[in-house]
Amino acid sequence: MFTTFTANLAGDIKDNLRKICTVEELRRIEVIHLDAWVSQFLRENDFSYTIVYDDVTEKLWEDAIARSGESIDLPPSFYSDEWAKVVAAHEAFTREKYLKVMRIGRGTRLDRKTRMQIWNVFDEYLSLMKEQQVRDVDTAMYECSVVLSKNPSAAYSSVIIDEGQDFSANAYRLIRSIIPEEHRNDIFIVGDSHQRIYNKRAVLSKCGINIRGRSSYLRVNYRTTEEIRKYAFAILKDIPFDNLDDEYEEESLCQSLTHGEYPKFMGFKTLTDECDYIVNEITSLTKSGIKPSDICLVARTHKLLDDYKKALPKAGIRVYEIKRNKLDDRTFDGIRIATMHRVKGLEFQYMFIAAANNRVIPLASAINENDPVSKNESLTSEKCLLYVALTRAQKAAYITSYGAKSEFIS
Question: Could you say which of 126, 148, 173, 349 is the most buried, measured as most Cβ atoms within 10 Å of its Cβ?
Fold first, then answer.
């Protein structure tokens, strides 16, 4: 089993395996992103519910709060975070377990009475999921692990994980359940905590996965130039990064072998001015012989991306949008555009990070101002997201803004 966190990257991995594997080898490798595997496994075991994500779960939390009748002064985002980072992370899926579980790293302190009130909201959330035949992915992964503990599967001899920094503790416990007996070459994980953009964190040893004395650091960056690497790392200055098992290393261990120009930042007064600059730069690149498919433009949100989806074709530049469940069609002759999250794991010769504006990077709505710990975690995730977008570039990166620029841009 070769798994990762997103459908886009799973598709890219499958395409690359075709270049290096024989037909017989490919028959023995299943490439699938983990959420899709969870859905598939549950269907095979007669679970009829659907896994749902942000838009649906946000409504579930709002309804659960209303149905509970509790009037605690906490936003819906607190409950979803508490569910993911405390309940699911520690498998505290009952009132009794939740009242006892440690909440280390959570900024909001709770006494026993408040925890009991919060559990009443959780209870309504569980009831709503049951009524509507849905599950959030953390709950679904836990239920997969329960099924596997009762009926261990021998479907795979090994699991390979790419982008391991984005897997939750729940996900790693599930992986351990898929390969329940530790043996040589049972689990192989590649991860980079500098690219942790989904605010998930797991300690492998606490999930039954032993990497002590077995881990290695890749010290050479083969994708991007040393100038882009240094610029991107500077955004993450003073943030500690782990090796997925509570050990920390210095960024100076890594270096790139190729060189080029430092990322170029240009600020403009208006969106129109910014788009004119981007069009001119892309036109210059394609006239010099760069294939449009080797150029990618990203923006922080879908709404912002729509501005460039309209502006670039008007200027005669064809665009192909990379979406959550849509693979990159490399036969399409046009530049790639995507949200910053969608280019995770991909690479292009030239990257344009557009609309690097104040309150966009970091995205104001993604920052929890009411909880200092959550605020710090969210700001780190936003910095990592910009780091990821920049380091997709093999040769050059352009950063543009209009109005006030992002506080992350020097």
Answer: 173
